[in-house]
Amino acid sequence: MAEREVILDIRDLQVHYVVRTGTIRGVDHVDLMVYQGETLGLVGESACGKSTLGRAILRLVPEPGEIVGGQILFDGQDLLKKDEKEMTSLRGKRISMIFQDPMTSLNPLQRIDQHFIETIRTHDPQISKREALDMAARMFDRLGIQRERLTDYPHQLSGGMRQRVMIGLALILNSDLVIADEPTTSLDVIVEAQILDLLKHLKEMYPMTLVLISHNLGIVSELADRLAVMYAGKLVEVAPAQPLFDEPLHPYTQGLLASVPNIRLEDTVLRTMQGAPPNLIHPPPGCRFHPRCPYVMDRCREQEPPFLKVGPERWAMCWLYEKS
Ligand SMILES: Nc1ncnc2c1ncn2[C@@H]1O[C@H](COP(=O)(O)OP(=O)(O)OP(=O)(O)O)[C@@H](O)[C@H]1O
Ligand SMILES: [Mg+2]
Fold first, then answer.
1. Full-model pTM
2. How remote is the CA of residue 283 from the centroid of ligand 1, in Å?
3. CB of 47 shorter than 6 A to ligand 1
4. Which of 2, 218, 248, 318 lies at a CB distance of 3.0 to 4.6 Å from 260, suitable for a disulfide?
């Protein structure tokens, strides 16, 4: 297979939230590569650090969050070394983000067409308002929304349409990298399926790289080429999607998969996972998953396993795979 081009190379990333009770290590020494053109699913239970990682890529971690270490190489350049002006020109143009709740990202006082004109002209003032409107109208065709709705205000659209608009705004400048953070979580299942179909369809039309964040493995299974599984601020498994579904390596991934309806796992004894993710101010010593792990060994309680290469393109942070 030809060497795939790496568009994003995250190295030893650490993001902390300092709060009254201590330091929450939201992203704790994470390494992750994203290949040009792929769809990478980033999954894990609530509060494991997915959004923090996604936002860190755009340097949009909310207060009191702070990126305290590591590198984020995008096209070979470290985003953490760029000044705010350079970041502003990258955001939306080269890297864009689709958030879970479109209502908080859209300006309620602004019509939808104005959102498009502003997004387009902020990055390219040479484009006239008329041209920008044309671009928006063509995008609406692709999003499956009638052009007349361009003059609506956000509250006049349904939740599903608002999410389509957010997707359109993220794609209108042909971003190279799109990070979609739980883009369907606030929608009902039918609209969710439509939005996922739309993303799949747009992915075929635009040469973008997509990072799709979800707590639901079932959702990303439809779209992802590869999966990265997070637990308690750490990446615990990275694998191509099909091999991961066929044979999840990390006990946490096994637990996640076992709790997805419709994905049948043969030969496993796993039920729904017991317990909950740990407090990230005082995570358990050793492997963070050990208190919930059905295979826990003494060593797991004391020593954190390294991220072990287990097979072609497969990594797992688990002592089970250490070659003796
Ligand atoms: N603004 C904030 N202030 C303080 N702590 C935060 C903030 N945002 C996130 N955290 C903490 O950082 C950790 C990671 O949270 P994050 O939102 O990244 O998780 P997530 O995987 O996206 O969860 P979810 O599936 O619920 O969206 C959690 O412990 C969370 O409480
Ligand atoms: Mg989140």
1. 0.94
2. 14
3. yes
4. 218
